[in-house]
Structure formats: structure tokens, C-alpha cells
Design goal:
Blueprint: E1 5-9, H1 16-31, E2 37-42, E3 47-50, E4 67-69, E5 76-79, E6 83-89, H2 99-115, E7 122-124, E8 127-133, E9 139-150, E10 153-161, H3 194-203, H4 205-212
Parallel strand pairs: 1-2, 3-4
Antiparallel strand pairs: 2-6, 3-5, 6-10, 7-8, 8-9, 9-10
């Protein structure tokens, strides 16, 4: 673990709005150099969230859970029990000020953590998120990425499906991509607990930081 970055794990599910408000407060404090950077791992009660590109009401098929508008990028997604959420508040002013680099590094971190359990996850050109091959041999989404960067301080992060009720994704068109299913570690036949996944995230954290490091100019 990096000594200058707080690593926080919530012991119980936390309301989405409550978490969002706390994350916003922390990001403001990081911007003002009054708090450390943060990796916050948690779980939410069932909720649908609408990102800044969620403009098509037809993608909200069956809002059986509360719908929360949020400032992250992307469209509609679902959060709920059995899903590991990672909110990452990083100060890119001291790192690479490159949005694409940050998103790519975040994706790579999640992919590496999933790989610890034998899950071959990957990026798919033109499709946001983290993908794998499900038990039917089809490409399926196992993780969502949604970020916001304000004054070069990051907010939001990732959501990885460990063992959620996948039927809950049926209330939306996940991330606006109807052609592909959603899967989870459990659906792939793997028992991956939140604690196990947190440990894998910790083990693969330093390469994520390295990807954000400012390249030193050669003399």
C-alpha cells in the first residue's frame, strides 16, 4: 500500500447519495491539499445511477429501484449487493494530467485484479467497461467504469460484479449497450468474496500508480 493514499473499506453497505456526498467532500479537500488521496471500497443497496450521457428514457426499462442522477461519465448502470465498488480520489496534478491515461490505467487495474482469479478480462474497442467471455462463449460485461475529473482530481471509479443478482440489470440498458449480456464471477463459476477481491486490488495497485506517474525527461 502507498503510505500517502488512504485505503478505506466499508464494513456495511452505504447509501449511494451518502457516499456521493462524502466523495465530493473528500475530492474538494484533496483539491485544497487538505486531505490524502483515497481508494474507497464499498457496496451499495440496490440503485440505478444515471451518468451525464443518460439522456434516453428508453434505456430506463423498469426502474424497480431508486434512480440517482450523478456527475460521472456514462449512461445508466446498476449498483447493488454482490458488486464491489471502488471510488478513487486521485490528484492528477501530481501525476499525469491525461484523462485517457487515467481511464486506461483504471481499466488495467481492474483487469489485473480479476486475473488473480483466473478471469480473463479485457477492454473492448468502442465499448466502455471491463469485458470477459461468459459460459456461453459470448462477450459479456463484468465491470463498469465511470469517472469524473474536476480540477485534475478524480471522482467515482469502477464497479465489478462478484455475485450480484444479475436480473437487477434488467431494469436498464446497462451503459447503453443492449447487444451484450452482463456477467459476474459467480456466473463464471467462481466464488470471489469482497475481501478476496480487495486483496487482489491491493496486490495490483502499484502498477496502477506507475501508469499515472509523470515520465521523467531524459537528460
Amino acid at each position: 500500500m502507498h503510505a500517502d493514499i488512504e485505503w478505506r473499506v466499508e464494513p456495511a453497505p452505504i447509501d449511494y447519495g451518502t457516499a456521493l456526498a462524502e466523495m465530493e467532500t473528500r475530492a474538494a479537500a484533496v483539491t485544497a491539499h487538505q486531505a490524502r488521496e483515497l481508494v474507497w471500497l464499498l457496496e451499495h443497496p440496490p440503485v440505478y445511477t444515471a451518468g451525464t450521457s443518460a439522456n434516453d428514457p428508453a434505456e430506463l426499462l423498469d426502474p424497480r429501484f431508486p434512480v440517482h442522477r450523478t456527475g460521472r461519465g456514462g449512461r445508466y448502470t446498476y449498483h447493488g449487493p454482490g458488486q464491489r465498488i471502488g471510488y478513487v480520489v486521485m490528484d492528477l496534478r501530481a501525476r499525469r494530467r491525461d484523462v485517457r491515461c487515467y481511464v486506461h490505467a483504471l481499466e488495467g487495474w481492474v483487469i489485473a485484479a480479476l486475473g488473480a482469479f483466473g478471469i480473463e478480462a479485457f477492454r473492448a474497442p468502442g465499448r466502455i467497461g471491463i469485458w470477459t467471455i461468459d459460459q456461453s462463449g459470448q462477450e459479456a460485461k463484468i465491470g463498469a467504469i465511470g469517472v469524473r475529473i474536476r480540477q485534475w482530481v478524480t471522482l467515482h471509479g469502477f464497479a465489478v460484479n462478484l455475485n450480484p443478482d444479475l436480473s437487477h440489470f434488467g431494469g436498464i440498458v446497462p451503459c447503453g449497450i443492449p447487444e451484450f449480456p452482463v456477467t459476474s464471477a459467480a456466473a463464471l463459476g467462481l466464488d470471489v468474496t469482497a475481501a478476496m477481491f480487495d486483496a487482489a486490488l491491493s496486490d495490483t495497485f502499484l502498477p496502477f500508480l506507475d501508469a499515472l506517474a509523470v515520465e521523467m525527461s531524459k537528460s
